[in-house]
Design goal:
By secondary structure, the protein is α+β, with helices and mostly antiparallel strands. The chain has 4 domains: 86 residues, Uridine Diphospho-n-acetylenolpyruvylglucosamine Reductase, domain 2 (2-Layer Sandwich), CATH 3.30.43; 119 residues, 2-Layer Sandwich (Uridine Diphospho-n-acetylenolpyruvylglucosamine Reductase, domain 3); 106 residues, 2-Layer Sandwich (Alpha-Beta Plaits), CATH 3.30.70; 102 residues, 2-Layer Sandwich (Alpha-Beta Plaits), CATH 3.30.70. The protein starts with a helix and ends in a 14-residue tail after the last helix. The relative contact order is 0.13.
Amino acid sequence: MESSLHRALLSLLGEDDVRTAEADLLSYSYDNSRLSVTPEAVLFPHSEEQIREIVYLCKTHNTPITTRGRGSGTAGAAVPVSGGVVLSTEKMRKIVRIEPENRLMVVEPGVSNQEVQQAAAKHGFFWAPDPSSAPFCTVGGNISCGTAGPRAVKYGTVRENVLGLKAVTGDGELIHTGTETTKWAIGYDLTQLLTGSEGTLAIITEATLKLLPLQQEKLLIRALYREMQSAADAVAAIMAQPATPCALEFMDSASLKLIRSQLGEDFPSAAEAMLMIEVDDSKQGITAAVEAIQQAAQNSGNLEIKIAASQAEQEQLWAARKILSPRLREIAPKKINEDIVVPVSRIPALIQTIEQLSAAHQIQIANFGHAGNGNLHTNLLVNPDDPEEIERAEACLDQLFTAVLKLKGSISGEHGIGLVKQPFVARQIGESERRLMAGIKQQFDPQGILNPGTGPQL
């Protein structure tokens, strides 16, 4: 970093918030993708005005800025691949205000998802996005990467649950997007445009979140199946009837092997797939909703349908589900983790294709995820020290993406593009659309200093 820029940043932020020690640079060189590039400095702004000044300074010195929350993303969007500085929003942690009567909350980007949920719950509300990393991940990161989580099946993703944003563009302009109302019809929807843009257009400084009322009752159903295909058929049947679960999670046999010890002694050994179906409703409506969903979940491959008998049992099931990704990393630290998504009715076809590709390429694949909206986390468990296996895995992944697009799906449901998906973007987004997106990038960030080299660099 140029010494004049370093001096200016020290003057703006102070020594404690401009880090250049080797240990600090290493700590902010990677995210959950395990990719790593060392930045020149790490910056910790406390305010919107400081972010504007950082952008002006970096623009003047043509220095890249990689914005990050807590680095829990898996696609590499927070990796400073072009060097420059990392701007961490983790010290911007104010809940500015909560307005239950308007069903909204205004927060700074460094507030964690869990802190939002806890604050909203005190007023009888919640925010719909609920990724498994909720205790750690930030609202700014959730919005930048288009986070969803299990509840998206009923309540939508982050795209449907952000009312407005304040952000600083790559040109140093402060912009306000959206409104504090759920209805408006004026101008382009810049809130939607910034959501999922992975820090390439602007740096979020404040978010107005849409809150939803907590339901009176919630029950969790465990449905077990002899094989993956029966579970996939059940997902399609559940989503084809009117009673909508608030979560519908899928786990295949490879996933179940890792968490059987957490699932209780009564877990049948014959089960090769499991659905976790959470239902929430009013006290008057919960019984009918559960009955309808249980009926839809039954088919010839069903072994058992059981309602969790207590809050402790519900927590046990969710804890088992949430440790799946860490467990998979333990057995395959360099696993290829994809988050493909297809229309729900095509999940059976997708599962069949995955089984065929696994056999054809001799690659072990573990599947789990948010089946209620067709989003599966497909994990290719590979040994990075085996070049021949890596080659087979890459061929398998290539054919998997082709199959997903033929099924009218997407190569990413909630992880984004980052670094890891860039080679495949052109398969899904056409040349004309990519050209329009490049023009948008130019308008927001004319010098290309915001997260260059990551995200939708189209």
